[in-house]
Structures are given as C-alpha cells and as structure tokens.
Amino acid sequence: MEPIDQAKIWKTMGTIGKKRKSQWLASSGALVLATVFLSYPLIGGKNSGSVHANSGVSTEQAAADVGAKVLPTDPKLKIEPK
Question: How confident is the model at residue 34 (pLDDT cuts 50, 70, 90)?
C-alpha cells in the first residue's frame, strides 16, 4: 500500500470546476437552511426560552397537584412575611 500524497489531493481539489463548487455550496446552504427550518418547531418556536413566571400557580400548588410536597432547604428569613 503506497502512502497518500497530500499534494496530489490538493491539486485534484483545485481542478474541480467553479460550477461544481458553487453547486456544492448552494446545496450545503440549502441543507443547513432546511435543517434549521424543520427543527424550529421541535425546539419550541419563538418563545421557547422565555420564563412564564406569572402563570397564576404557586410552587406549592403545582406540587400538590401532582401529589408532592415542597420542603424548604433553608429556614425562612425573619424579614419574610408569613
């Protein structure tokens, strides 16, 4: 088995026509665009990263709805209302 001649590979790549390079670039761009377009709904759309803090349900209520109980890890501070 003979070693790979890197210079020959680069020379061969340089002989590919401009039309073929532009076709490759266009098809690559179309593939990237199609991937982004098709994955956008899977990611969650425009508001996927936004936090919905004002949903009207407290942490304790949400936990109770699924049968869980929220236990504090730190005692409440003296300045917090009861």
Answer: very high
* Assigned domain for 74 exists: no
What number of other Cβ atoms are within 10 A of residue 63's Cβ? 14
Q: Is residue 24 part of a domain?
A: yes
d(CA 29, CA 16): 19
Assigned domain for 60 exists: yes
Residue 58 has pLDDT above 90, yes or no: no
Look at residues 72, 46, 42 and name the one whose alpha carbon lies nearest to residue 60. 72
Count structural domains, the chain. 1
Beta-carbon count within 10 A of 64 CB = 13
